[in-house]
Design goal:
Blueprint (H helix, E strand, L loop, with lengths): L4 H12 L5 H5 L5 H10 L11 E3 L7 H9 L7 E6 L7 E4 H8 L6 E6 L3 E5 L6 E5 L3
Antiparallel strand pairs: 1-6, 2-3, 2-4, 4-5, 5-6
Length: 137
């Protein structure tokens, strides 16, 4: 394991979650009840820092295009961490290609943390609700 679950969550929180919601978000590490509530609300989550989100345009919403966009970043690790409303994928460490394959168009809202605090992917519930979250220039 390249990065721990704790590193993924804490760095994701600092970079991509609104300051007023960070403490609550970070509790998903230690409080199962809060994690469950968070996962249930993930499809309508409204506490991302919008300036760090890039909506994936409709013409690039295919699996291959999303994967290409994510691996185009220098030094992307092959292992990712997933937070998902699906218990099948939540708290899993997977290869990047496997994570993208399973999450894109799965019908489950999910976050894939790729480079902790620097690069992530969010898939919401709505059609075309796909975002790259990035602190990279």
């Amino acid at each position: 394991m390249l990065y721990s679950e704790e590193i993924h969550i804490l760095k994701f929180s600092i970079s991509f979650i609104e300051r007023t919601y960070r403490d609550r978000f970070e509790q998903i590490l230690t409080k199962p009840r809060i994690r469950k509530k968070f996962r249930e609300s993930l499809s309508h989550f409204q506490h991302f820092i919008n300036s760090n989100m890039r909506k994936i345009p409709g013409s690039f919403q295919e699996l291959d295009e999303i994967y290409k966009a994510l691996i185009s970043v220098r030094d992307v690790p092959n292992e990712v961490y997933i937070i998902s409303e699906s218990s099948k994928w939540d708290r899993k460490f997977l290869r990047l290609d496997e994570g993208i394959n399973e999450i894109v168009s799965s019908g489950y809202s999910s976050i894939i943390s790729i480079l902790p605090g620097e690069l992530a992917y969010y898939e919401g519930e709505g059609l075309g609700e796909r975002y790259i979250l990035s602190k990279l220039s």
